[in-house]
Every structure is written in C-alpha cells, then in structure tokens.
From TrEMBL, chain A:
Reaction equations catalysed: DNA(n) + a 2'-deoxyribonucleoside 5'-triphosphate = DNA(n+1) + diphosphate
Enzyme class: transferase
Function of the protein: The function of the small subunit is not yet clear.
Compartments where found: Nucleus
Ranges for domain DNA polymerase delta subunit OB-fold: 28-154
Chief location of this protein within or outside the cell: nucleus
Listed name of the protein: DNA polymerase delta small subunit
Assembly, per entry: Heterodimer with subunits of 125 kDa and 50 kDa.
TM ranges: none
UniProtKB/TrEMBL annotation, chain B:
Name of the featured protein: DNA polymerase
Complex and partners: Heterodimer with subunits of 125 kDa and 50 kDa. The 125 kDa subunit contains the polymerase active site and most likely the active site for the 3'-5' exonuclease activity.
GO MF annotations, alphabetized: 3'-5'-DNA exonuclease activity; 4 iron, 4 sulfur cluster binding; DNA binding; DNA-directed DNA polymerase activity; nucleotide binding; zinc ion binding
Xref: Pfam families: DNA_pol_B, DNA_pol_B_exo1, POL3_N, zf-C4pol
Keyword rRNA processing among record annotations: no
Principal EC category: transferase
Keywords: 4Fe-4S, DNA replication, DNA-binding, DNA-directed DNA polymerase, Exonuclease, Hydrolase, Iron, Iron-sulfur, Metal-binding, Nuclease, Nucleotidyltransferase, Nucleus, Transferase, Zinc, Zinc-finger
BP GO annotations: base-excision repair, gap-filling; DNA replication proofreading; nucleotide-excision repair, DNA gap filling
Source organism (scientific name): Phaseolus angularis
Length: 430, 1086
C-alpha cells in the first residue's frame, strides 16, 4: 500500500537574484541607488497626482523657501551611534569595551532626502525611527528659513500589484518552511532534526499523520543550514583535524537532506552562517557541498532572497538579513511590521548597500519588489509570528517569521489552499 | 574638548625644560614699529570714483549683501548722548595730522592709535585715540641740570635731523623730561635715580633715536658719550596699552561728551570717533566685563583651477570659488553661508549661491561682501599663507586695483609683506603677512602648528583628529575638471569648498580657541594678533613692563648677546631603572616647580646681586641667598622680586579661576574661565623660559641657571628623603625605592602591592617632604602607575590611577610613535602591545601578537595602508643634498604621469618594495596605488628591520630576557612568501595554465577546478574560497559606504583621494580584490 504524495507545479523566479553575468569592474555603489531612485520615482510620480493633486512636484534643487511642493528622493538617515569602519582606526583604543547595543538609534538622528541634484534635511512630520537609509519616498512640505524641509506628509509606494490568487481547488497542499538548522552549532540537536524529517517524509506516526505528511508538497530551508566555526577559515594553513571539523557539519547536513530529497522537493537558501558569499543577493550554495542530496532532481539550491511560485501562489523570502538589519537601524512593534514596511516601500532590502552587504549592481536594483507575493517569509527569527495584511487594491499577503529551528524546534506549515499557517513544534523532553 | 588634548595644548606651549648644556630658547624676534602714513595707503581720488561706479553697476549684488549688515545704531548712539562701551580686538596706529580740537597746542604729523572693537549690541567701533606719544628712557648722566638737558635736546634733535633728512617732521624730539626711576637690573639700595624720558614725534623715531644714543653722541662738556636706553624696544601699540592699563581683548569705555564724532569718516565702522587717550576707561576683565561681545567671525576658503601637474599659481590660475561662513561669537549656528562661483552653479539648500561670469566679478563680490558683513575676525585654514595672498596677487595679475580694500579703513589697500617667523620652539616658517586693517586674522593652521604636535597638519587629518570626521579630499587636478563641467559639477565643488570653510569654524568652536586666545591676551596683556604672529617672550615682556611701571622701574634694552655664553646645565633627571614594574608606582609631582622656585627664593632681575655689589653693599648675610649654581639674590625682606610677584599673581589668579570654574554653571562662562586658567598656567611657565632666552628681550642666565639648579636639588633631596624615611627600619612594610625622577616628578616604588596603600604612602610622603621645602614649593601626590613599564628616561608607559578602584587611562610618554616617518603598522603594533601588556596583563599574548604581525608581514598579508610612509616634498629633487626615498619617487612618478605626480608642497606617500639585490632604500620607494595595482611585493625585511624592530624591542627589552631573539628571530620569521609581480618583464613570456585549487598541480583538459586527486576535498576547498570571498565582500561594503557617508551623497561617484584617510588604500584594495574574488568563484561554476 502507500499513500501517494500530492504533486504541485513549481516555477523558480530566482533569475533576478542571480549575479550571473554581472561583472565587477570597479564600479561603486551610486549606480544601485540611482537605479532604485529611477524605478521608484517613476512609480511615485504616477501616484502623486492622486495623493496631492494641487502641489507642484520638484527636485531638491528647485526648492525655494516657503514654496509648498512635493519632492521624491532617497532617504538617508544620519545616525549618531551607527558604527563606522573609521572607528576601527580611532587613536584611543577605549579601555572599557563599548557595550554593543543591539540597536543603533539615538534621539538626535535625523533624515535627509537626496536626489541626484542634492540633499535636504527633513524636519516636521516625519518620524526618523520608522525609516532607514535607502528608502525612496515622496514628501510634501516646504523649505524653512533654516534650510530644512518641513515635511507635512509622506507617501510611500504602497503594496505592489499582485497576481490573482489561484481559484480555490479545495485541496490541502502544505509547504514546510524551516530555517536556522545550524548543523554543527552547539544549539543544534540532530535528533530533533531527524524527527522533523521523519515527520515530513511520513515515517512517523499513524496513518492519519502519514496522510497529512503526504500533502506536503515542498520544503524550504531559509538559510543557516550549517554553522562553520569561522575562525578555522581565517588561518592560513589548516591542520587536518580542522578540515574534519569544517566539513563534518556539511557532510552531516548532506545526509539529512538526502533523506528529504528522496521523498519530496526541497529548496535550500544560503544564510549568513552558510558557506556562501556575504553580500546580498547570496548565490546558491554550491552543489559540490552536497554530493548526496544534489543527485536527486528534487533538490534545488536557490539564492537568498528566493522567489518562486507553487501552483501560481507566489512566494518571496529571505534568510532574515534584511529584517535583522532594519531592526538595528529602525524601530517597529514587531518583526512583521518591518516585513510589511519593506513591501510598502517596495524594496526587499532598503539598507543594502548602506549597512547590509550588497553587490554593486550597475543597471538594476534586484531588490525592487515589482509584484506582490502571496506569501512573504523571513528566516532565522527568534520566534514564529504571522499575520495577513491587505493592500489598497485588494492584495492579500501572508507574512511569516520563520524561527530558528535549532533554538525553538519550530518549523512552519503553510496551506497553499488558503495560505493559512501554523507552527510544527518538535520538542525533545530528555 | 577632552581633557587629554587640553593637557597637550598646555604642555606644547609651555617651554620645555631644556636638555642639559644647551641654549634655552632663542627667539629671534625683533620688535619693530612700522609707521604707516594714512594718506599713503589710500587709493587716489579717481580710483575711488571708479570703485563707486563699480558699486552702482552691481547694484543687485549690493542689495543682496545689505541684509547682512550690522544692526542699526539706536538713536542715543546717533545723538552721541551715551557713552560707548566696547570690547577691543585690535589696536594699531597710523600717522596722521594731529587733532586740532583735541590737541590745540600741537600740529604736524602724529601717531594716532586706532582701537577696533565691537559693542555688546554688535556695533563695530573704530576709536581714534589722540595725544599718546612715543617715548623711552635713558639714565641721566650724573650732574646734569635743566640747562644741560636742553643742550642735550638740541644735540639729539640735530643728529635726528641728519639721520632723517627726507622727513618733513617739524620737531623730532618733542621734549626731554627728568624723571625718577630705577633700573630693574640688580639689587640696588637707593630707591630711585634720575632718568631722562625722551619723547619723540613718531614711533619709528624711538628706534632711530636709540641707534644714535647707542653709538654715542657728542655732548658739550662731556665729549662723545653713548647711552644705554631703557624700554626703547616696546612696540608703540603695546606701550599705549601698558600705559593705559589696557589688556588684549578687554572692554573700553568712553563717556558721553568725551568723544567727538568724526567729521569725515575714514573707516567703515558704525561708530567712529576721536578722543584723548586720557579719557579712555579700561575695564579689567572681570564680572560683566569678562564676557565676549558678539563679534563676527568669517571663515572662508577659496578654490583655484590649477593646471595639470602644477600647484595653482596666481599668475596663471583663476580663483573659481570662494565659500564664506559668518558666525556670531557665542552662537552655534552660522549667520551666513554663501559661496561665490565663477560660472553658473546649481543651488545648494541653505546656502546663498552667487554666480558670476568673470573672475573680476567674483573677486569684487567677495570684497563687497567683506565690507558689508564687516567681520572682526577672519579665520580659515592656511589663509595667511595661501588664500589671502593668492587673492591679492591674483587681483594684481588681473589688474583689479580696487580689489585689495579689505580692511576697515575706507579705500585703504591691504599691505602684503614677506616674513619669516623663526623661533626655537616653533621652528622657522616663511609666510606672507597680509595686514587687513581692523580685522584680526586667525589662521587655524598656524594655531595647530603652534599648539599641537601632530603627525600631519592637513585639514583632513586635523579634523579627523579633533572632530573625528574624515574630510573628502579632492585632488587639485580634478578641481579644474569639475569647474569645466556643468553647473552640477561646479555645485559639487562648491559643497566641497563650503566644507573647507566650515571645518575651521568647527575646530575653533571645538577647541575653544576664541576663549583661550582672548583669555591669553587678557592675562598677558598683548593684543590678540600678537599671540599668533609673535613668540612667547613678548607676552612675558608685556607683563614685566606693566609690573615694572607700577614699581617705578625701567627695563634696559640690553644688546642681544651671542649664544656662546648662553649655556648652562639644564634639568637633570634621575637615572631610570628600566624594567616592568608590577607593583604600584606612586608619582610625586612638584606643582609648578619652576615658578615656585622663583617665588620661594625670590629670584628676579631686581634681587640679583653682583659679586662686586655683594662685597660693596655690605648686605647682612641672613638677607642673602646663594643658589646652588653660585648666584646671589637678596631675600624678600630687602626687596621683593618682580618676577615672583608676577608669578604669584598668575598662580593666585589661576587658583581663583579654577575655583570659579567649579562654581560656574553657564557653559560660556565656563569656557572663559577654563581658557583663563589655562592661559595663566602657560604664562606662569613661560616666565622661566624668558629669563633663559639668550637672544631674547632680557635674558638673565643667573636666574634661569639658579632655577634649574634648585630644581635638581629638589629632586635629589626628595629621593633621599623618601629612601631614608620609608624603610623597614622605620617600621614600614618595605624599603621604598625611587626608580625614576623627571624634571618635576619622582617615581617611587613603596613595595606595597595594593593601589590604595601606595596612594596613602604617596600622600604621606608628599606631605612630609613638602614640609621641608621653602614655601610655596610643594610636592603633591597625584597618581599611581600600575603596572608601569619604564624603558629609559622620558620613555615610559603605565596605567594611570587617581582613584583606588579603577584606573583612569593608559598613559605613555615618549613611546607613541607620532613621528611622521613611521608607518601606521608601528603605531598600531606599539599601542596594541602596550594595551595587552598593561591592561590585559597578558605578556605571552603580546609576544604572540607581535609574532603574528611579523609573520603576516613576511607572508605579505599585511594591509598595505599600514605600511605607507608619508613625507612632505618641500623642494625639488635637485635641491636635496642626499637622495631621499620620497623625492626619488616623486621624480619617477613625474616621468610616469606628470599630471598626477606630487608637487612641491604635497605630501608623498610611499611604500618600500623589493628591489634588486643591493638596491638603496631610496630606490625602492614606490607609490602605494601602483603597488596595489601591479601586485608588487613589499620589502618585508625593510619594514622588520627599519620600522618595527626598534620600537618593539624598546618595549619588550625590560620584560623579556632575549627580546630580540624571541621576537625577531623565531620560527615565525621563517615562512616567507613573495607574491609575483604581474607586470615584470619576464612575466610576459609566462604561459598561464590552470592549476588545481587544492594542490596547485597543473590541470589537464578534463578538469577546471580541482584535480582528480583533490576531488574528494572539493567541499572543503570550496568553503575556503567562499569564506575568503565573503570576507572581501564585507570589507568592500563597509569601506565604500563609509566613503559615501563622508562625501554626503549616495547618488554620486566617490572622488575622494585623501591619502591621509586610513581607509583610502583599503578601499582601493577592496575594489581590486572584488574582481579577483569573483573570478576565483567563477572557477567553481563549471
């Protein structure tokens, strides 16, 4: 006997995140800002007539004292506490190591709006803690005598248009989202992971559980699959035992992933602790790392950020860096709010390249969100959180914070039918 | 401002105790008055009308500028019904016709003192003071009666007329009066003697008269006689200030009715009037009068379009932009921000951009701006040597005769002259002196060079140091490109130019220069402008003259003597017992040692007794004091010294200022008080130096050598007392040991291991020993060093404790490698080692750290920016006698590309590269950028031997037994890898073949990444590659975004080429490595 696993159509949309033919030839970061401003300005200009029909639109240069107008530009947040690479060279090594704050905000922080023509300091009705460097917005206001721009109102681009949600088929299909396995770290517990695998692949529980497992159509690992002690790699010559220490977690991971790949499709995304490049978009993990699992055609190594469609339901996700960075430089009531903001700003990672490593693209900005996903997830968060947000044009988005599995034992289960989701918790009472 | 840097300021200005057997301070300063005839500087009538016409033509500009004029005068000022109270900032004099109304009895040319200042409402004041006459003294030959005086007068007048034939002055020597005075030199029993006060017509005649009297004059009945003159070297303006009790920057009042409004105003000041010098009321800077008037400070910067390969020259290169920033004293935001540009420039938010089509218009607009805004103080960076002379020379080249009217006197051109300022302390510097009448120039570069010892004085590194801000540095070869671009690129340049105008103001605020310098002027009594343009001695002289005047004493103008006699034994330091002390070391300091000695032993010019007099005068021996150097001085019961009195006043005033500072709440008041106490301290310390300045105003080596000999005695005495008293015999736990003694401090190891115990013993010792000294010499206990690394004399490091529970900081002396010719690696290495040794108490860690660094260096893994050595190119190659690395490199770079090669005046950064065997060091210098781009190997051995080894061994020798063998010759020095240059000749013939990433075996056609042998290690090799790439990416991101931040723009390319910036080379390197990293990863994508 046997229960047939449910199938599902998968379309990868990662192409935009592949560096591929982009070549580095000495370019700087201004191009990506330029591309971003260009894309966003076209968009915002089309919105301004509905937002503030009676005001002229001008550039920073064209500002005149007292003239009310709308300007569009990239925000730059001046932050007093922001760590700077120059400080590494400061003359006086502080005797007492500074306590690293998890957040670098200060009440003196202020925003500056910049376009190609110049920059102007913003004051008035705009709250610095909500914004970060790199966002493009439209502001209404006027230049005050002191040379500031007194903001009256702010417009962000809002949720992007969304492809229609597929007609309800009535059939339950589940996607499992996991992040932060951190194989090889002190918090990782192989048994816990094995339980997860057995559950997904249907090797656990009674027939009911197996039936349920058979409805899982896809597993996505959102970053931090392994943890390689970094200091090992810094030295020049590795001792043989270091080789082992380094490759051991990867080998272990490969074995575990093979078990899943044998049963159902699986996507892996690189995260900050994985053997991948540092800056976003992180390129897919090399298949040579996974000689076992990569031999299955169900195994897909993807980029971070990762975008794909399952039965026409669009997913967009990252391994968490974008939201973690927002958390350092801005303020929100929860992580989901950061996620919502990135959608409204139509930018997956506004702090790249400023505080988030990023490839210096010249022609485009891959993080621009053109189309609204149905499911938007970020990995490696402290706890599982989820919410549905609605856009002004009827867009519905499921936001999910995927917790670190190695620390919480929680994976997230999402139903493609109605984008409802719940936590799958694996606790070991030892 | 941090306390630490303030301390530095103090010590940098205070005269350093001299090294033994050397001349103290040789200030080659000449105090010379210069008579300026008012009508000579003025523009002629027709030129004047030209200027007026010009103004009309540019009416629009005038309207734009007029909103920045000073607040209008209130009615009572206009009606002259109220007195005028103002803070004076500048005092000078001109020669003009004497005032008929105020001085009805006089006629002909006379010196008119001009006082420029600001009222508390912000009105500008020009006060013309009449009736003050230049004079000096000579001692009256014995037996001279009134008749003799009149004969003498005639003879002198005759000689003066001979010497000044061209002069049209009616009477040279106005009068000669007999007065009772006493010379300040040597103890004298009589109260006074007759002196002749010779009053002359014009200030310069003092010098010419002195010359005649020095050389000798034929007198009836007396024959040829020469005279020693007294106070004939006092500048006229200073003479006036002293006689009227005016000190630099104080408030002056003239009551209503005592001044006369000028008929035809000569200046642009709002209030201009004439008055008699006797009607001036000078207020001491206390209470209400210690405040600062809201004077206007202009900070400006100019940009010139240089030609490729040349530093801008006024004969060729136009001035293209002038950025200005005007701030009212005491305000934290500037009042005006504007920039004047040649050709259009896009607007800048918050900045008034004024664009003009011709350079002439730019220059004239600036002149008009200066006149309308009427700044009291002009600041900038290197304005005295570059910006101001450049503007003036440029205008002369363009034949704009009406440009250089920048001062406060109507139609009066600024005067330019070449000067060399040389002083032992500050070195010799050539500069142009531009006199802008009525406005004080305050060049921040000069101040920095004066007050701080820095490795570089570029505006960039100075702002990095004090404001912790990097400045974008646009190379002057790019400036022309920006200028020749569009309104946008010129805007870019304008923003840069504005920043350069803003930074000096920021520095001025941050380092409280206005407060400190005004207070220094008030304390020492000299005009503010003297503080920067002249050395230390005039400050002491001013105080001495003031005090002497009160006491009826006069100061002789002694012939300047050569330096051969000017040697005496300097301060000694106790032999340092080098070592690493892991027990607390208590430091006993003499508070203001040299001033205290002078006070305690009443050392002064007027208490000095010559050996001859000592015999003759029959002074009781109990009233005499023999100093250890063998001089004799009388005690204060017979004659109180003037120097001790000055010092007493300075130190009491300092105590009071410090006490007030504790009370003061208002930050501005605090700034004034802090500036004052600092000025008082510096002044007190410079008195000793004044007496030892052999080419000074009044050298007296008897005093200075006595001071140092007492100093030595005190140190020895302290050592003896400590070691005698604190012994186990006397019931103490351990025998105390003096391990080192500096000029004014003694380091004691009491043997106890707790900081608190050492502090208690230190206090006890200080109190006990102080009791044995003559007051006010006092030994103070201030701090404990624990641990303490004593390397040799004047070189030590330690943790500094003033409280028993926590150390304050790490303190080092003589070890920091602020020296310019060291690379950053040395500095970092030394600092980090000290940190590890002293704070972490981890000696093995420090050793390992050094070994790692050396190993990194030898394996060519060192960050290049750490290896860059920078030297200033002061002259061209031919002028250097010895071949120097940076000069040779500059020559080579010029051959490579003349446009970007360094010019005279630039700083040349270089690294030492591997050269042919036996190549000289100067042949192995290379441009760091070139090295990066071409992968040229560094001469690690050079760095190891010539840069690192000495400073490191110095630190470790007291700690390790075989420091040299351990650190410099261990196994870590064996693995050396040399990267192959990719541009050398042979390389062109090499055939590139892919090798296995794992084992470097040549790969066949079938493999691209690893050989079949290494196939199994693929994952691990990949991890290695990728981790390196990820590190590079992280660096790249951090570095380039930092530069975007400094630049203040996200949407524009970074142009900055500031080689002083610590991340410049790293950024360049990151750029290069990014593409390498990518190609490395690409190899895996098969």
């Amino acid at each position: 006997m046997g229960i047939e696993r449910v199938q599902c159509d998968y379309v990868s949309l990662d192409e935009t995140f592949e560096i591929g033919k982009e070549k580095y030839h000495g370019q700087q970061y201004c191009h990506i800002y330029f591309a971003r401003l260009h894309l966003m300005r076209t968009l915002l200009y089309s919105l301004v007539p509905h937002w503030k029909p009676n005001f002229p639109v001008c550039t920073v240069l064209e500002l005149e004292e007292g003239k009310e107008c709308v300007i569009v530009g990239t925000l730059y947040k001046h932050m007093k506490l922001k760590p700077r690479v120059l400080d590494e060279y400061s003359k006086q090594k502080s005797v007492v190591p500074l306590v690293k704050p998890h957040n670098f905000m200060h009440s003196d922080d202020y925003l500056v709006l910049e376009d190609e023509s110049g920059r102007v300091k913003l004051s008035g009705n705009i709250i610095p803690p909500e914004y970060v460097t790199g966002i493009v917005v439209a502001v209404l206001g006027k230049e005050s005598g002191a040379g500031d721009f007194l903001v009256q109102d702010v417009l962000d681009a809002g949720l992007p248009p969304q492809i229609e949600f597929p007609l309800k088929s009535g059939e339950d299909k589940y996607v499992v989202l996991v992040s932060g396995l951190s194989v090889g770290s002190s918090t990782s517990n192989p048994l816990q992971f094995q339980l997860l695998i057995d559950h997904i692949t249907g090797h656990l529980g009674d027939e009911k559980a197996q039936l349920f497992a058979s409805k899982i159509v896809q597993v996505v690992f959102a970053g931090n699959l392994v943890e390689i002690p970094h200091r090992i790699l810094n030295g020049q010559n590795l001792a043989s035992e270091d080789f082992a220490r380094m490759s051991e977690p990867i080998r272990e991971l490969d074995i575990l992933l093979s078990q899943i790949a044998a049963g159902l499709p699986l996507d892996i995304m690189p995260g900050p602790s994985d053997p991948a490049n540092f800056s976003l978009p992180q390129q897919s993990l090399h298949e040579c790392l996974f000689p076992g699992s990569s031999s299955y055609n169900t195994f897909r190594s993807c980029t971070n950020p990762h975008c794909f469609e399952l039965d026409n339901v669009r997913f967009l996700g990252t391994s968490g860096q974008n939201v973690d960075d927002l958390d350092k430089y801005s303020d929100a009531k929860d992580k989901l709010e950061f996620m919502e903001r990135t959608l409204r700003w139509r930018h997956l990672a506004p702090t790249a390249p400023n505080t988030l490593g990023c490839f210096p693209f010249t022609e485009r900005d891959p993080f621009f969100i053109e189309s609204c996903p149905h499911v938007y997830f970020v990995g490696n968060q402290d706890k599982f959180e989820t919410r549905i947000i609605k856009g002004s044009e009827g867009q519905l988005v499921r936001l999910i914070c995927v917790p670190k599995f190695s620390e919480t034992g929680v994976a997230v289960m999402l139903n493609l039918r109605d984008i409802e989701c719940h936590a799958l918790s694996f606790t070991l009472d030892l | 401002m941090s306390n630490a840097s303030r301390k530095r300021a103090a010590s940098a200005v205070a005269p350093q105790p001299p090294p033994p057997k050397q001349v103290l301070m040789t200030q080659e300063e000449d105090f010379m008055d210069e008579d300026v005839f008012i009508d000579q500087t003025l523009v002629s009538e027709d030129e004047e009308s030209l200027i007026l016409r010009d103004i009309e033509q540019r009416h629009a500009l005038a309207a734009r500028l007029s909103k920045w004029t000073r607040p209008p005068l209130s009615d009572d000022y206009v009606a002259q019904s109220r007195g005028v109270v103002f803070q004076q900032l500048e005092i000078d004099y001109v020669i003009g016709e004497s005032h008929r109304e105020l001085l009805p009895n006089l006629s002909g040319p006379a010196a008119i003192i001009r006082i420029f200042g600001v009222t508390k409402e912000g009105h500008s004041v020009c006060c013309n003071v009449h009736g003050f006459e230049p004079y000096f003294y000579i001692s009256c030959p014995p037996g001279m009666g009134p008749d003799d005086i009149s004969h003498f007068h005639q003879a002198l007048e005759g000689r003066m007329r001979e010497a000044n034939r061209n002069s049209n002055v009616g009477k040279f020597v106005r009068r000669i009066e007999m007065v009772q005075r006493r010379s300040i030199m040597y103890y004298q029993q009589s109260d006074s003697q007759p002196f002749l006060k010779i009053v002359v017509a014009l200030p310069t005649m003092v010098a010419s008269c002195r010359g005649i009297l020095d050389r000798g004059i034929q007198l009836d009945g007396l024959g040829m006689k020469s005279f020693l003159t007294y106070e004939s070297n006092v500048l006229f303006a200073l003479r006036f200030m002293i006689d009227c009790n005016i000190v630099g920057g104080n408030w002056i009042e003239i009551l209503a009715g005592k001044y006369k409004k000028i008929v035809k105003s000569l200046s642009y000041c709002q209030l201009e009037f004439d008055c008699l010098y006797s009607d001036l009321i000078s207020h001491a800077p206390e209470g209400e009068y210690s405040k600062m008037a809201p004077f206007r400070i202009l900070s400006f910067d100019i940009e010139c379009a240089g030609r490729k390969g040349h530093f801008p020259e006024p004969s060729h290169d136009p001035v293209i932009q002038i950025a200005n920033l005007v701030t009212l004293q005491g305000e934290d935001q500037p009042l005006i921000r504007n920039v004047m540009t040649l050709k259009s420039c896009s607007p800048i938010v918050g900045v008034d951009v004024m664009s003009f089509d011709t350079e002439r218009e730019v220059l004239l607009a600036w002149r008009d701006f200066l006149r309308e805004v009427d700044p009291d103080i002009i600041i900038g960076y290197n304005i005295c040597k570059f910006d101001l002379p450049y503007l003036i020379e440029r205008a002369a080249n363009l034949k704009i005769a009406e440009f250089p009217i920048l001062g406060r006197i109507r139609n009066s051109r600024v005067r330019v002259k070449d000067t060399t300022f040389s002083s032992r302390q500050y070195g010799t510097r050539e500069s142009k002196e531009v006199t802008v009448e009525g406005r004080v120039q305050f060049d921040l570069l000069q101040v920095m060079q004066r007050d701080y010892k820095l490795s570089s004085y570029s505006l960039n590194s100075v702002s990095a140091h004090f404001l912790s801000e990097q400045k974008e540095d646009v190379h002057h070869s790019i400036i022309s490109d920006l200028q020749n671009g569009t309104a946008e690129t010129r805007r870019r340049l304008a923003v840069y130019c504005l920043k350069d105008a803003y930074l000096p103001q920021r520095l001025l605020d941050k380092l409280m220069f206005i407060y400190n310098y005004v207070e220094m002027a008030r304390v020492t009594g000299v005009p503010i402008s003297f503080l920067l343009s002249r050395g230390q001695s005039i400050k002491v002289l001013s105080q001495l003259l003031r005090k002497a005047r009160q006491k009826n004493l006069v100061i002789p103008n002694v012939k300047q003597v050569g330096s051969e006699q000017g040697t005496f034994e300097g301060a000694t330091v106790l032999e340092a017992r080098a070592g690493f002390y892991e027990k607390p070391i208590a430091t006993l300091d003499f508070a203001s040692l040299y001033p205290s000695i002078m006070m305690a032993y009443n050392l002064c010019y007027c208490t000095l007794v010559t050996s001859e007099d000592a015999r003759k005068l029959n002074i009781p021996s109990e009233s005499l004091n023999r100093t250890p150097s063998g001089e004799t001085f009388v005690k204060s019961n017979l004659q109180k010294g003037i120097l001790p009195e000055i010092l007493e006043e300075l130190l009491t005033a300092r105590k009071r200022a410090k006490a007030d500072l504790k009370e003061a709440k208002d930050p501005l008041e605090r700034a004034v008080l802090d500036g004052r106490q600092l000025a008082l301290k510096i002044s007190a310390n410079s008195v000793y130096g004044f007496t030892g300045a052999t080419i000074g105003q009044l050298p007296c080596l008897e005093i200075s050598s006595s001071v140092t000999s007492y100093g030595r005695q005190m140190i020895e005495h302290t050592k003896k007392l400590v070691e005698d008293k604190f012994t186990t015999l006397n019931g103490y736990e351990h025998n105390a040991e003096v391990i080192y003694g500096d000029t004014d401090s003694v380091m004691v190891q009491f043997g106890v291991s707790a900081v608190e115990q050492a502090m208690n013993l230190g206090r006890e010792a200080a109190e006990y020993i102080s009791g044995t000294f003559t007051k006010p010499i006092k030994l103070e206990f201030e701090k404990v060093y624990y641990p303490y690394l004593l390397i040799s004399k004047k070189r030590y490091a330690g943790l500094f404790w003033t409280k028993p529970d926590k150390f304050d900081k790490m303190d080092t002396k003589g070890i920091e490698t602020v020296r310019r010719d060291n690379c950053l690696l040395v500095k970092n290495l030394v600092n980090d080692c000290l940190h590890k040794i002293l704070i972490d108490r981890d000696i093995p860690g420090a050793v390992q750290y050094v070994k790692n660094a050396i190993s990194d260096l030898l394996r060519n893994r060192m960050d290049l920016s750490l290896l860059v050595i920078t030297k200033g190119l002061t002259k061209t190659g031919d002028d250097y006698e010895v071949k120097a690395a940076h000069v040779e490199l500059a020559e080579r770079m010029r051959k490579r590309d003349a446009a970007t090669a360094p010019n005279v005046g630039d700083r040349v950064p270089y690294v030492i590269i591997k050269g042919a065997k036996g190549a000289k060091a100067y042949e192995k210098s290379e441009d760091p950028i070139y090295v990066l781009e071409n992968n040229i190997p560094i001469d690690a051995q050079y760095y190891l031997e010539n840069q690192i080894s000495k400073p490191i061994l110095r630190i470790f020798e007291p700690i390790l037994k075989n420091a040299s063998r351990e650190l410099l010759h261990g196994s870590h020095t064996r693995s050396i890898s040399i990267s192959t240059p990719s541009n050398s000749g042979l390389w062109k013939f090499a055939k590139k073949e892919l090798t296995c990433i794992g084992c470097k075996a040549v790969l066949g056609k079938d493999h691209h990444t690893v050989c079949s042998h290494c196939k199994g290690r693929e994952a691990e090799l990949y991890c290695k590659t990728v981790s390196r790439v990820s590190e590079l990416e992280m660096h790249f991101g951090k570095l380039w975004t930092q530069c975007q931040e400094c630049q203040g723009s996200l949407h524009q390319d970074i142009l900055c080429t500031s080689r002083d910036c610590p991340i410049f080379y790293r950024r360049k390197k990151a750029q290069k490595e990014m593409s390498e990293a990518q190609s490395q990863l690409d190899r895996w994508s098969f």
